[in-house]
Specification:
The chain is an all-beta fold. Helices cover 0% and strands 41% of the residues. It starts with a strand and ends with a strand. This is Rieske-like [2Fe-2S] domain-containing protein.
Length: 136
């Protein structure tokens, strides 16, 4: 069985990398994956009506928190805002969309100089129980 998360990517060509087995990801808990010098935070959503159309999906975002500059997004708190799955950064508690990477709540802080406030998102495919992440 195969599923594709509904994530937009600005790149037309991606390199698919094997991340882990779907069973290695616990619902509502993040996991970090390293692909060369790219750190990715993976999140599996539970099969829960609170997540509506996103239930059971796997999302991948950059692991770098643009506000603290620590690679900690995989330690964030998973939740929802108006039905959209989110992750709250563990350091200063900014809230980001797992679908778009957009920073929804800045907690009255600015990202570190030179960094965008939003997270990069990566496409995810689950093929035969294996999670693959699309990298530029």
């Amino acid at each position: 069985m195969s599923s594709l998360t509904e994530q937009a990517t600005t790149e037309t060509t991606v390199r698919w990398e094997r991340a882990c087995l779907i069973t290695d990801l616990f619902p509502e808990r993040g996991a970090a994956a390293l692909f060369g010098d790219v750190q990715v935070a993976l999140f599996r959503l539970p099969e829960d009506p609170a997540y509506a159309a996103h239930a059971g999906q796997v999302y991948a975002v950059q692991n770098l928190d643009p506000f603290s500059t620590a690679h900690v997004m995989s330690r964030g708190i998973v939740g929802t805002r108006a039905g959209e799955p989110t992750v709250a950064a563990p350091v200063y508690k900014q809230v980001f969309s797992l679908v778009t990477g957009k920073c929804l709540v800045t907690a009255d802080k600015s990202p570190k100089e030179g960094l965008a406030p939003d997270l990069a998102v990566y496409p995810v495919e689950v093929r035969d129980g294996v999670v693959h992440v699309g990298l530029p």
